[in-house]
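quick one before i forget lol
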Amino acid sequence: MATYIIATVSVTDPARFGEYLKGIVGLSDRFGGETSVRGAVAEVLEGDAPAGERVIVTKYKDTATAKSYMNSPEYQAAKIHRIGAANVTIRLIEMPD
């Protein structure tokens, strides 16, 4: 069952967030992740979202692989730099076959 990790990100400290990005560059690829969306929200059509919010959508072959990425030592080490540098929500979506 294909699984997606969808992250919404509002950066509050670009320098610290940059350290987080350095730690995860190419990491999802090593877990078979395929990023299909990565960018800033151009316009909010309904509801509320912070100005400059970013959205990242990455597909994995299954839930176990997506969770392996999130729980990997490399991701966990990088995540420390993100704390206090961004407001982040990460969702896991499972798509039935």
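fyi The helical segments are 14-24, 27-30, 63-71, 73-82.
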